[in-house]
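Risk register update: the risk of archive-format incompatibility is retired. Evidence:
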Amino acid sequence: MKKNVLFIALAAGLMMTSCASKKDLANCQTENKSLTEKLQDAREDLAGKNARIAALEDQQKGLQQALKNAEAKYAKLQESLDKSLTNASQNNISIEKLVDQINESNQYIRHLVEVKSKSDSLNLVLTNNLTRSLSNEELKEVDVQVLKGVVYISLADNMLYKSGSYEINSRAAQTLSKIAKIIKDYKDYDVLIEGNTDNVPIKKTNIRNNWDLSALRASSVVQALQNDYGVDPKRLTAGGRGEYNPVATNDTEVGKQRNRRTQIIITPKLDEFMDLIGQAPESDK
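Archived output:
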């Protein structure tokens, strides 16, 4: 009898220990899943910011090169003037003409600096106007850039479409409504909706390949902007670039996710863009 009681007590103890271990394991698994998701979000956020920084750095390099070229032209003219002054009795160079050229060069440099300042101001104001209506959560999946007066809005596929489909999902409504308002505010701009995919072949009987998928997704966004939010269809163009316009490597899941995107490109007509440069608005304070 005593042996039976002892056996029952030991079995109960082992069962309690097993239950506790399973509970601890489940808690660890839940915590690990949460941490993994946070790490993934942080990586995607960092990748987006790095892409934006790279684009701004490219723009800065271009302006710096233009300024460098102007300064080189100025130095060359200055050198010519110095030689002319030294050898005035040996040549027929018009010093007065060289002075005028140098003055013109100085005006050109000042013009470059002025245009750069106005262009930067315009880009900053456009970016602020575009992003201030988006929530922090939306900004994680929406990348907004303004380069040389052209607005690029890049949206992740999982916030727009049902998985493996070109149909707009319920999550997209709020964000698309805000983007539609932006498009309406800039009523003289043309709008290109551009679909992009990763390099994984689509496996759907009604979709032939990634060209089809990207074009159909762009068309879905165009029709949503027209039918649901009242954007003038004459301003809209839908296009697909398939897997052939990547912004990241397709060798990683994060890279593939960045490549699966839809870009909304808002472009002013050339004469209107020059007017904007000439009258860059002041930023909101």
